[in-house]
Amino acid sequence: MEVGEERFPKQRQVLVLFLLVGVAVAGWESRRYSVMEETESGSFVANLAKDLGLGAGELAARGARVVTEDKEPRLQLDLQTGDLILNEKLDREEMCGSTEPCVMHFQVLLKKPLGVFRAELLVRDINDHSPEFSEREMTLRIPETSPPGTVFPLKKAQDLDVGNNNIQNYSISPSSHFHVSTRDLGDGRKYPELVLDKELDREEQAQLRLTLTALDGGSPPLSGTTQVHILVLDVNDNAPEFAQRLYHVQVPENSPVGSLVVKVSARDLDTGTNGEISYALSYSSQEISKTFEVNSLSGEVRLIKKLDFETISSYELDIDASDGGGLSGKCSVAIEVVDVNDNSPELTISSLTSPIPENYPETEVALFQIRDRDSGDNGRMTCSIQDDLPFLLKPTEENFYTLVTNGALDRETRAQYNVTITVSDLGTPRLKTQHNITLLVSDVNDNAPAFTQTSYTLFLRENNSPALHIGSVSATDRDAGANAQLTYSLLPPHDPQLPLASLVSINADNGHLFALRALDFEALQAFEFRVGATDRGSPALSSQALVRVQVLDANDNAPFVLYPLQNGSAPCTELVPRAAEPGYLVSKVVAVDADSGQNAWLSFQLLKATEPGLFGVWAHNGEVRTARLLSERDAAKHRLVVLVKDNGEPALSASVTLHVLLVDGFSQPYLPLPEAAADQAQADPLTVYLVIALASVSSLFLFSVLAFIAVRLCRRSRAAWVGGCSVPEGHFPGHLVDVSGTGTLSQSYQYEVCLTGDSGSNEFKFLKPVFPNILGQDIGRKAEGNPTFHDSLGI
């Protein structure tokens, strides 16, 4: 809180005036209750529930409480019965001093709805204080020549009670020379005066002692006494006289200590010591003695303590002027304390609501009261808050204000407000008080989670390890607390055939995605699913995002040769005429790779040949062609091993074996021998050689015979192998011979070949082509899964 002098900003201002008259509030008029002072604590004062017209228990429901201006807990409200009771004994003199009547103002505060009701408690005086004199003995010096009827002022007694309980009369002990009269100045104060009834004779009686009694008007009356010591003096026939009987003075309350308040003056017509005047306070209470002092020689009245208008607004001083002969005069000084703007406004918070729920319309945030102890313009106040805040100040009654929201608040826009309530008075200079309130806005679940992307694309290489982290999704929620705590989940896929639960899983806390099993690119290239993010608010809000997983190919499939078939059956033999030109298409190796991309790019190379340099393989399409002209010296049968390799890392490969038979213009009958027959033919010479070796050990003769027989058998076997196709006259049985397509043919053809029995040329006759449907169907299936398949076929 800061208090200072500064220019009041242009804000919403509400001029607040302290009103000294009663104000009707919702049918309630300010009521006055009364109680005798010194009444025991817990005593009944009134039933506020009945006076307010509220039912039983309604005070508690509306949070009723009693607030007094001095903030002292002198009263207590029983919320169950509505009774207003005393919380402590009340001392009227302590509360109000000499002020009459003694009224204690209080308010009754109600909530839901807000209500402020004013009331007053009149504390009635009882006669609990006796009159007291400031001195136990006072001395009077009276000239013996004083004529009867001369009046001598006496110091008055003090009674803290008021009204009839204050001092009403003075009396003195019986005396033949004096009696006491009570003088009323018209302002309620009464002074005793000693009246001379009979002339004094110093030589007869030099001094007298009398008892002065002060009586109050209580029932029963109380009294106080003091001794009056009278000294009879020689002649001093002129008493001091003041220039004014009453002085009126106004003193600002901020006057410094030592300031001159007033200067009183008296004169004495006597001379010498009888004309020397000294000034003194005739009667001074403890408060007056601590605040003012009188110069005994000059009559100047000065401050010895700071004044406070809010504590005491006026003083009454009695000053005596005494000469050296014992005569004295009296005057009164009425001092009015002038208020200055020395009190900053006060602000008291009665209730405060924080945090404030968002999205609610006009809501009461705080109830507070303002007060300024100064008077006039110094006590008039304005109250305001900053312009840029969504709050309003609404005045109620008795300087109470409510701070309310100006519409619904949004915590996501602003979660905290610092409200500065500024209260300024209209005095010169202006004083102000600032009170800072920190208001928090509580969260309501009004924001659904939002993913950082509407769709995510994740890449996963096939053959991954199970439980592999493949990526993450992330969502945020602008709410706070449990309303911003998110739970991630997999949503049911649109495709019921997709086994999503066995493919991926998601961490419900952080959105991490994991592959549950190894994926196969050749079986599943990509799949999509949706993930959801749900907060923990009530009701819960959610959102979803699309996740696409792209499976990346790994080189995990070796090339597969479609032609020639490598199924363990009789090898396929390609026929090549010896008159073929270089570049003649012998056959075409057809292969596919189940992988994709560069992993499916195939290259071909000749790995092994019976006669190197005679045949060559084109690297990109697998065509086997002659590399040079054929000659008679070239063997009739050739075995070629072709290597098919992909372009993966590491590269995978497959090999295929081709059998090539050189023929003279397709005029020699030819039936391909199975591989087993060839092996048998090669196995027979070995057997013969073994027999010869064994026979040579036994007998050279036997070896020679067996060698001769073995050579004969070998020749016969070879002749039977070459001429095995000879049959009797007539049509030869059909036999299928595979001849690879030439040029740009996209598939191989099978031809049915037979020899004509009536022709002497023994040439082949090509009857008709037969398409291999089974092979075509297999090629079609491979081509669907591999776009590079047609390239490998030369299409």
TrEMBL record:
<dbReference type="GO" id="GO:0005886">
    <property type="term" value="C:plasma membrane"/>
</dbReference>
<feature type="transmembrane region" description="Helical">
    <location>
        <begin position="688"/>
        <end position="711"/>
    </location>
</feature>
<keyword id="KW-0106">Calcium</keyword>
<dbReference type="InterPro" id="IPR020894">
    <property type="entry name" value="Cadherin_CS"/>
</dbReference>
<feature type="domain" description="Cadherin">
    <location>
        <begin position="452"/>
        <end position="561"/>
    </location>
</feature>
<dbReference type="InterPro" id="IPR013164">
    <property type="entry name" value="Cadherin_N"/>
</dbReference>
<dbReference type="GO" id="GO:0005509">
    <property type="term" value="F:calcium ion binding"/>
</dbReference>
<dbReference type="InterPro" id="IPR015919">
    <property type="entry name" value="Cadherin-like_sf"/>
</dbReference>
<keyword id="KW-0325">Glycoprotein</keyword>
<feature type="domain" description="Cadherin">
    <location>
        <begin position="576"/>
        <end position="671"/>
    </location>
</feature>
<dbReference type="Pfam" id="PF00028">
    <property type="entry name" value="Cadherin"/>
</dbReference>
<keyword id="KW-0732">Signal</keyword>
<dbReference type="Pfam" id="PF16492">
    <property type="entry name" value="Cadherin_C_2"/>
</dbReference>
<dbReference type="InterPro" id="IPR032455">
    <property type="entry name" value="Cadherin_C"/>
</dbReference>
<dbReference type="GO" id="GO:0007156">
    <property type="term" value="P:homophilic cell adhesion via plasma membrane adhesion molecules"/>
</dbReference>
<keyword id="KW-0472">Membrane</keyword>
<feature type="domain" description="Cadherin">
    <location>
        <begin position="348"/>
        <end position="451"/>
    </location>
</feature>
<dbReference type="Pfam" id="PF08266">
    <property type="entry name" value="Cadherin_2"/>
</dbReference>
<keyword id="KW-0677">Repeat</keyword>
<dbReference type="InterPro" id="IPR002126">
    <property type="entry name" value="Cadherin-like_dom"/>
</dbReference>
<dbReference type="GO" id="GO:0032391">
    <property type="term" value="C:photoreceptor connecting cilium"/>
</dbReference>
<feature type="domain" description="Cadherin">
    <location>
        <begin position="243"/>
        <end position="347"/>
    </location>
</feature>
<dbReference type="InterPro" id="IPR050174">
    <property type="entry name" value="Protocadherin/Cadherin-CA"/>
</dbReference>
<keyword id="KW-1133">Transmembrane helix</keyword>
<keyword id="KW-0812">Transmembrane</keyword>
<protein>
    <submittedName>
        <fullName>Protocadherin beta 15</fullName>
    </submittedName>
</protein>
<keyword id="KW-0130">Cell adhesion</keyword>
<feature type="domain" description="Cadherin">
    <location>
        <begin position="134"/>
        <end position="242"/>
    </location>
</feature>
